Amino acid sequence: MTFWGLEIKPGKPTFVETDERPLVVKQAAMASTAAKLEGTCTLEVAVGDGKKFTLCRLAGGRSEQWPLDMVFTPDEKVSFTVTGPCPVHLIGFLDQYEEDDDMDDDDDDEDEDEDERPMRGRIGVANGKRSAADDDDDDDDLI
């Protein structure tokens, strides 16, 4: 993962290129210089055909930052626009290359196999005291 950050100034669309890696946008925040401004700032995203979608509305003193979890693939044409008086900072990261993800998945599968071993044994303790049934060799006590 590589840190990614961008400042979006009001009124101008800002286009993003992801350098052949998926972009994960995690948070939008008002720039620190804008926190005292009156009014709200609306952050919008346009992907592909240019149709805009609102991601969040930020307001000084009330909601100055907003969590996001947006993933954009390298082949998508993405732009962000802010409407209102304040610049907005976006932060996130450039994700790992897909080849690295496949190798990590193999390691995870091995760990899961080890965790899935069945547990065997007797359970017969209640309130910290052993019952007489615990001493029986009957299979009825197996759970």
Automatic annotation (TrEMBL):
Please list where the region (Disordered) is annotated. 95-143
- According to the UniProt entry, which residue ranges have a biased composition of type Acidic residues? 96-116, 134-143
Top-level taxon: Eukaryota
Which spans are transmembrane here? none
Report the residue ranges that make up the Nucleoplasmin-like domain in this protein: 3-93
Pfam families, alphabetized: NPL
Record-linked InterPro entries: NPL (IPR041232), Nucleoplasmin_core_dom_sf (IPR036824)
Q: What is this protein called?
A: Nucleoplasmin-like domain-containing protein
